[in-house]
């Protein structure tokens, strides 16, 4: 059976035991290994049908293997479970490991910022709202990773889009003010004069782009 664009529609009837390929065509040491590899990479839960399509194995066999893996993880008391949720299969941290994960996340939030993070945070604090590109131009390095870290820690947040470029703008949060012990941005030390004005950054960006 085919759909409008000529691709073959996948169904339980169209993938029978007789049509299943040889193990050599699986592309993995075993069906269990194949399913584990796919689920580790998937961003969202994968349905049994999707896994059968990817492994080229019968749906019934994939379903059976999924439940075998779930039972194995439970019996071995692993740090994760394999669960079927919302029509798909996905790995989840084991419930008994919640205290460990919570402690690890909190410890990470409380860890001291790196020098790169502090410098990036300072630029955003004094030039906000500011785009990632402009922050990078001031610091002279790529700041993508640092921006993600500061956002995850709740120190900065998105503040709309730049009307000219459409790029995301960033600003500091109330958490940032609490951490440094001030009530508003007006109480920041007078360091802004040591940073390029936003109007001047266009020239900086142009020079970076042209290499002049």
Quick summary:
With 212 residues, the protein is of the alpha+beta class. It has helices spanning 31-41, 48-55, 59-75, 98-110, 115-127, 132-139, 144-152, 174-180, 198-210, and strands at residues 80-85, 88-93, 130-131, 156-161, 168-172. It contains nine helices and five strands.
Could you characterize the architecture of this molecule?
The structure is a single chain. This protein has 212 residues and is an alpha+beta fold. The chain folds into 2 domains: 17-96, Orthogonal Bundle (Arc Repressor Mutant, subunit A), CATH 1.10.10.10; 112-210, Arc Repressor Mutant, subunit A, CATH 1.10.10. The protein has helices at 31-41, 48-55, 59-75, 98-110, 115-127, 132-139, 144-152, 174-180, 198-210; strands at 80-85, 88-93, 130-131, 156-161, 168-172. The strands form 2 sheets. It has a 3-stranded antiparallel sheet with strand order 3-5-4. A two-stranded antiparallel ribbon has the order 1-2. A hairpin with a 6-residue loop joins strand 4 and strand 5. Helix 5 (115-127) packs across helix 7 (144-152) and helix 6 packs across helix 9 (198-210). The longest helix has 17 residues, at 59-75. It is elongated. The protein starts with 30 loop residues before the first helix and ends with a helix. Mean pLDDT is 79; it is low at 1-21 and 204-212.
CATH superfamily of the largest domain: Winged helix-like DNA-binding domain superfamily/Winged helix DNA-binding domain
Q: What is the arithmetic mean of pLDDT?
A: 79
Beta-strand percent range: 5-15%
**Span of the ends, CA to CA:** 61 Å
Largest sheet: 3 strands, antiparallel
What is the count of helical runs? 9
Q: Give the uncertain stretches in residue-range form.
A: 1-21, 204-212
Strand order across the largest sheet: 3-5-4
Residues in helix, %: 40-55%
CATH architecture of the largest domain: Orthogonal Bundle
Gyration radius from CA atoms, angstroms: 26 Å
Order of helices and strands: HHHEEHHEHHEEHH
Number of domains: 2
Task: Give the tally of β-strands.
Answer: 5
At CATH level 3, the topology of the largest domain is Arc Repressor Mutant, subunit A
The computed structural class is: alpha+beta
CATH class of the largest domain: Mainly Alpha
Shape: elongated
């Amino acid at each position: 059976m085919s759909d409008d664009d000529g691709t073959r529609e996948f169904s339980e009837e169209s993938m029978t035991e007789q049509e299943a390929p040889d193990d050599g065509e699986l592309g993995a040491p075993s069906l269990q290994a194949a399913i584990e590899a796919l689920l580790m990479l998937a961003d969202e839960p994968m349905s049994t049908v999707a896994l059968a399509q990817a492994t080229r194995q019968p749906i019934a066999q994939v379903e059976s293997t999924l439940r075998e893996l779930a039972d194995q993880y439970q019996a071995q008391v692993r740090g994760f479970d394999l669960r079927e949720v919302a029509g798909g299969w996905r790995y989840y941290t084991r419930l008994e490991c919640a205290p460990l994960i919570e402690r690890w996340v909190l410890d990470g939030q409380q860890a001291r910022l790196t020098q790169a993070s502090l410098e990036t945070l300072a630029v955003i604090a004094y030039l906000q709202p500011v785009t990632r590109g402009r922050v990078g131009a001031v610091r002279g390095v790529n700041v993508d990773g640092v921006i993600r870290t500061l956002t995850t820690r709740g120190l900065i947040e998105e503040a709309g889009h730049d009307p000219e470029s459409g790029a995301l703008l960033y600003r500091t949060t109330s958490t940032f003010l609490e951490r440094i012990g001030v009530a508003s941005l007006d109480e920041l030390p007078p360091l802004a004069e040591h940073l390029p004005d936003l109007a001047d950054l266009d020239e900086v960006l142009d020079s970076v782009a042209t290499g002049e």
